[in-house]
Amino acid sequence: MERIIPDRVLKRRTDLDLTQKQLAERISSLGFGQMHYQSIQQLEDGDVKKPSYAKYLAEALETTWEYLTGKTDNPAAPNGTFAKETLGSSVSNGHASQQFGIGQEGAPYMLTEISRMLGVMEGSMKTAFNARFDTIDAKLNDHEKRLEALEDRPHPQKGRRR
User: Fold this and answer.
1) Measuring CA to CA, which residue among 75, 96, 101, 76 is closest to residue 86?
2) What is the CA radius of gyration of the chain?
3) For the chain, N or C: smaller number of CB within 10 Å?
4) By C-alpha distance, which of 115, 90, 116 is closest to 30?
5) Fold classified for 4-102
6) Contact 101/58 with Cβ under 8 angstroms?
7) Range from 55-64, 136-145, 152-161 carrying the lowest mean pLDDT
8) If DSSP codes are grouped into helix, strand and coil, which group holds residue 126?
9) What is the domain partition of the chain in residue ranges?
10) How far is CA 25 from CA 6, 35, 54, 98, 142, in A?
11) C-beta of residue 100 within 8 angstroms of C-beta of residue 137
12) Predicted confidence (pLDDT) at residue 103 exceeds the cutoff of 50
């Protein structure tokens, strides 16, 4: 994962004066399910390659996906203001995405960006897999050659010393 997302998540979280636990609770309340602060800690450390809670991240941080991915330096919602601190009430009535600047106009971009990131990850995973496979294949060929050399070697006769 590039450092832009972890750095932006950390900045927004500290700007909002939230702890990692509070951010995890916000994401949980948006519909992700049970989440622990360690997941936020790992994300901020850059240890997470594919966060399953990505679609809730911008909402919970009261910003846009464009800001988190570095497409813009403005953390404000598209209407130019920060989302209101009504996370609990907006979730209960089902309008959290509109409250937090994702809305219908931001959703396609977010899905496109997530798809792009998944494609990049898939490509790097294929490259890593192919490199590992080539290494294993080379070792296997080396072992086969050694085995053939051992089989071709004359066996010592019983009772005779070399």
Assistant:
1) 96
2) 26
3) C
4) 90
5) 434 Repressor (Amino-terminal Domain) (1.10.260)
6) yes
7) 152-161
8) helix
9) 4-102
10) 18, 7, 14, 19, 53
11) no
12) no
The amino acid sitting at 122 is: E
Six-digit token pair at 76? 């404000």
Query: Is the pLDDT reported for residue 90 higher than 80?
Result: no
Written as one letter, the residue type at 66 is E
Provide the residue type at 12 as one letter. R
User: Among the listed ranges 11-20, 23-32, 45-54, 59-68, which one has the minimum average pLDDT value?
Assistant: 45-54
* pLDDT > 60? residue 58: yes
Residue entry with tokens 């004359």:
154
Query: Is the pLDDT reported for residue 160 higher than 70?
Result: no
Give pLDDT, residue 19: 92
State the SS3 of 68-121.
HCCCCCCCCCCCCCCCCCCHHHHHHCCCHHHHCCCHHHHHHHHHHHHHHHHHHH
| φ, ψ (nearest 5 deg) of residue 16 | -85, 0
Q: Give the count of beta carbons closer than 10 Å to the beta carbon of residue 105.
A: 9
Tell me the two tokens of residue 97.
């995405």
Strand, coil or helix: 16: coil
Over range 40-59, report the average pLDDT: 83
